[in-house]
Amino acid sequence: MVGPLKTLSPAEPARPAHVLLVEDDLEISRMLQGVLSESGFTVSGVTDAAGMDGVLARDKVDLVVLDIMLPGEDGLSICRRLRTASAIPIIMVTARGDAVDRIVGLEIGADDYLPKPFDSRELVARIRALLRRAQGGTGGGRTRPLRFAGWRIDPASRQLHDPDGLQVAMTSVEFDLLAALCRHPGQVLSRDQLIELTHSGLASPIQRSIDVHVSRIRQKIEPDPDNPRYIKTVRLGGYMFTEPVEQA
């Protein structure tokens, strides 16, 4: 006997991405929260590290927009602390004119940055691009794992495993850069090409931020980061992945 038909519930709508804004300027914070909410994001706004820690402890956060100049613990220290425990995407914003501060932010694990003042529409575009990368939205559907020298890159799970099978933590930008290089072994890729392959054409404020991310990748995969074996710098050209790569 056939039982009663089950009523199918409608598909649950996708959860809006949750953006945590850490900004102590209340006027800027209110403006950005309004823009991000209108753009379809769930937004939490806090003014310092303690407020950020509280939100992260109780809610699922998909991306952090982090100001450098904050009361108490500054943005650079917060970024360093976040990155030791999580691969959550981080966009740093700074009013400082010195590019060194921005480079330091990238070196300690920020995925992207914007100097103040900036167009709020650009921030929205960068958030969306970074969320797409974090969710595996780049790569044109190429999800087959890649192998080189015992290392395994899995685009589907967005994980990197070393020759011993241990997972190596990477930011979204680092993962996409390494995957792009591995998909073009023996080919010189310029910084413009790497930006196109990993940022969907959305260039960072200074193109040389690619260099910082490549340096971080080398620290994680190279036997001797000071004398790289896998990722070679090509003078006036860009970068080339020299190790043979196989699809798993």
From TrEMBL:
Is this entry keyworded Transcription regulation?
A: yes
Q: Origin, by domain of life?
A: Bacteria
The answer to keyword DNA-binding applying to this record is yes
DNA-binding region location: 143-243
InterPro entries the record matches? CheY-like_superfamily, OmpR/PhoB-type_DNA-bd, Sig_transdc_resp-reg_C-effctor, Sig_transdc_resp-reg_receiver, WalR-like, WH-like_DNA-bd_sf
Q: Which residues carry this modification: 4-aspartylphosphate?
A: 67
Q: Which residues form the Response regulatory domain?
A: 18-131
Q: Where is the OmpR/PhoB-type domain?
A: 143-243
Q: Which SMART domains match?
A: REC, Trans_reg_C
Q: Which Pfam families match?
A: Response_reg (PF00072), Trans_reg_C (PF00486)
The UniProt entry, under CDD domains, shows: trans_reg_C
- Please provide the record's keywords in A-Z order: DNA-binding, Phosphoprotein, Transcription, Transcription regulation, Two-component regulatory system
| UniProt cross-references to PANTHER family, sorted A to Z | DNA-BINDING DUAL TRANSCRIPTIONAL REGULATOR OMPR, REGULATOR OF RPOS
- According to UniProt, the name of this protein is Two-component system OmpR family response regulator
Per the UniProt entry, what species is this protein from, by scientific name? Inquilinus ginsengisoli
The opening ranks of the lineage are: Bacteria, Pseudomonadati, Pseudomonadota, Alphaproteobacteria, Rhodospirillales
